[in-house]
């Protein structure tokens, strides 16, 4: 993964390419606005040169006693300055508009990117740091880079104009003005990099701050935080972390101020040096008043333009460092973890699911979460997975759903390796309810319709899915039926009970009518006993002809399965139907009796 210092090793060519990309991004997001903005910046860069020259002509006219000519120059200068003011305002507005447009485009690109990532990326802390950094920079860095580049080009045009006017006076003066600005600019560059490295280094602290804020101030956590009285403890942790960040930022800002403030005074000294020389020459009659006016103006403005260029280079360097974060995120490779394989020849007429010597280790974990799995599930078969906590049941399901690829062995669906089945095709064939299913803070229609995005607006299908999931009465009781907003996050939302949410999630799975594999990870944990029995009966009815793979810790549900598979760290330790496993008197029988005894005591 990346380190904080990495981008600073990038060569000039890489940086220029990034700058060009920023300009391209800005241009593509709103070409007309970008063109008008560039035009405004170009005019703003040329006007000061014209003003300097008019200043000289004006004074010359005064000295010559040509009042009309002097007034004409004055009016000309006034018109230019008024025009410049308007153009600068317009440039500000155009920049704001371009920034908003570009922010939209870049955020969209980031969100688009997240949709092409794998589950492993979302469980990787480095990835989260990168995502946080990329999103933080998304809305303004590319524009800042583009603006800085254009600003530099404009300042360069102005400076060249001034230098041309000044060279007629003294090459040494030009050199003095330019050299004096260099030390401050170098110091700026150094501090730009230090600030960037500090921010990158502390990205995970910043993420922790965000997480603590979420725990302290979200409905998801409010109940437990209140009852456990966790507020003061979490607040203190937030405060300490926040203070740490603040102290480091402050230290750097003060060091920057000390160094840059002093060095930038060199520029002022050189200006007054040159100004003094011009004044002396004018006093001795070696320079006309018009020239005195023009040189004084050009010295001051030229030096300011040069300083703008050097400081702009510092700012550009800083923006480019942050931009590299954004581009690095956008460049995260999304290739599968394992190289593409040759398509496995389908076994003749093979149907159903087959796990062949499957083992899986989560990224960056030493041990296997699941190993030695050899298992076949025939078409139309209902298989229940049981086993102690951590045995790998949910992992089994994530592998079957294609969210991870096996570290060892392979999984075949109708004789095809899951890795060779294009993801959209695989997803169409699966209907899944996860243990931690989503509760979308959206309408009831969307909460169910999301089960099959192609039919999200198909009310007839949604109503049938609601009935299948046992959620018809949940929606019937809502004030505006399918249009009702669910959850409490937005105004007018209706909060559902855990069991009601679970039925909605089940209905969502039933939207996928074409799916021939149904995966249910503890689908009824929050349901009451009647509802639970009803769901299982319905799943058996509606899943007729489909493969059903279900996980449940309640053995009363599991016994309806055609086959029960007992998973343990060593792999599949037992399998068979309920009565056969009870008769075998092994692990399943022991677990079943223990649970049955518990119910008997109740
Ligand atoms: N995202 C993850 N990253 C790393 N390890 C994980 C991850 N998810 C699960 N594990 C580990 O994999 C092993 C199997 O977990 P899994 O969730 O598959 O078990 P399970 O049988 O479903 O457990 P439970 O009955 O508690 O739901 C556990 O040791 C767990 O710590």
From TrEMBL:
SMART domains: AAA (SM00382). GO terms for molecular function: ATP binding. Residues 35-318 form the ABC transmembrane type-1 domain. Gene3D superfamilies: ABC transporter type 1, transmembrane domain, P-loop containing nucleotide triphosphate hydrolases. It is a multi-pass membrane protein. The chain crosses the membrane at residues 34-55, 70-87, 143-165, 171-191. SUPFAM superfamilies: ABC transporter transmembrane region, P-loop containing nucleoside triphosphate hydrolases. InterPro entries: AAA+_ATPase, ABC1_TM_dom, ABC1_TM_sf, ABC_transporter-like_ATP-bd, ABC_transporter-like_CS, P-loop_NTPase, Type_1_exporter. Signal peptide: none annotated. Pfam families: ABC_tran (PF00005). The keyword Cell cycle does not apply. It is found in: Cell membrane. Residues 353-594 form the ABC transporter domain. The keyword Nucleotide-binding applies. Keywords: ATP-binding, Membrane, Nucleotide-binding, Transmembrane, Transmembrane helix. PANTHER family: ATP-BINDING CASSETTE SUB-FAMILY B (PTHR24221), HAEMOLYSIN SECRETION ATP-BINDING PROTEIN (PTHR24221:SF646). This is ABC transporter ATP-binding protein. It comes from Nannocystis bainbridge. The lineage of its organism: Bacteria, Pseudomonadati, Myxococcota, Polyangia, Nannocystales.
């Amino acid at each position: 993964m990346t380190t904080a210092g990495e981008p600073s090793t990038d060569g000039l060519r890489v940086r220029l390419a990034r700058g060009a990309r920023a300009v391209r991004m800005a241009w593509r997001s709103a070409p007309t606005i970008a063109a008008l903005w560039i035009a405004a910046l170009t005019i703003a860069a040329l006007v000061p040169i014209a003003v300097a020259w008019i200043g000289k002509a004006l004074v010359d006219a005064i000295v010559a006693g040509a009042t009309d000519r002097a007034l004409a120059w004055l009016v000309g200068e006034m018109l230019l300055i008024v025009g410049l003011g308007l153009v600068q305002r317009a440039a500000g507005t155009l920049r704001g508009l371009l920034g908003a447009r570009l922010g939209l485009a870049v955020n969209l690109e980031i969100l688009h990117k997240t949709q092409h990532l794998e589950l492993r990326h979302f469980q990787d802390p480095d990835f989260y740091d990168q995502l946080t950094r990329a999103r933080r920079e998304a809305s303004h860095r590319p524009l800042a880079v583009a603006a800085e580049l254009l600003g530099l080009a404009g300042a360069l045009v102005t400076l060249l104009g001034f230098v041309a006017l000044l060279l007629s006076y003294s090459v040494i003066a030009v050199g003095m003005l330019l050299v004096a600005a260099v030390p401050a600019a170098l110091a700026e560059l150094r501090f730009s990099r230090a600030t960037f490295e500090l921010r990158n280094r502390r990205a995970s602290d910043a993420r922790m701050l965000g997480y603590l804020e979420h725990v302290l101030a979200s409905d998801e956590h409010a109940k437990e935080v209140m009852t456990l009285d966790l507020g003061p403890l979490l607040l203190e942790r937030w405060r300490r972390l926040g203070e740490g960040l603040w102290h480091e930022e402050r230290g750097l800002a003060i060091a920057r101020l000390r160094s840059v403030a002093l060095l930038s005074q060199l520029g002022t000294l050189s200006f007054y040096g040159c100004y003094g020389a011009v004044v002396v020459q004018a006093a001795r009659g070696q320079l006309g008043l018009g020239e005195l006016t023009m040189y004084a103006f050009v010295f001051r403005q030229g030096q300011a333009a040069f300083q703008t260029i050097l400081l702009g280079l510092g700012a550009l360097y800083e923006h480019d460092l942050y931009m590299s974060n954004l581009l690095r995120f956008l460049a995260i490779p999304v290739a599968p973890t394992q190289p593409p394989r040759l398509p496995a020849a389908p076994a003749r007429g093979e149907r159903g699911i087959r796990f062949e010597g499957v083992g899986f280790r989560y990224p960056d974990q030493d041990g296997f979460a699941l190993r030695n799995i050899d298992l076949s599930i025939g078409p139309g078969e209902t298989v229940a997975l049981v086993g102690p906590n951590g045995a790998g049941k949910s992992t089994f399901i994530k592998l079957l759903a294609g969210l991870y690829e096996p570290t060892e062995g392979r999984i075949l669906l109708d004789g095809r390796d899951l890795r060779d089945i294009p993801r959209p095709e695989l997803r169409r064939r699966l209907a899944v309810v996860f243990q931690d299913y989503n509760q979308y803070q959206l309408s009831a229609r969307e909460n169910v319709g999301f089960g099959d995005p192609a039919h999200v607006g198909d009310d007839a299908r949604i109503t049938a899915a609601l009935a299948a999931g046992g959620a018809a009465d949940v929606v019937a009781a809502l004030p505006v039926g399918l249009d009702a907003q669910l959850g409490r996050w937005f105004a007018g939302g209706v909060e559902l009970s855990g069991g009601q949410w679970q039925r909605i999630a089940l209905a969502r799975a039933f939207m996928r009518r074409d799916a021939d594999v149904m995966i249910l990870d503890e689908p009824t944990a929050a349901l009451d006993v009647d509802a639970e029995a009803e769901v299982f009966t319905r799943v058996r009815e509606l899943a007729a002809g489909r493969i059903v793979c279900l996980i449940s810790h309640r053995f009363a549900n599991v016994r309806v399965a055609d086959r029960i598979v007992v998973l343990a760290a060593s792999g599949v330790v037992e399998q068979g139907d309920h009565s056969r496993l009870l008769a075998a008197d092994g692990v399943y029988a022991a677990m079943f009796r223990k649970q049955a005894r518990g119910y008997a005591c109740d």
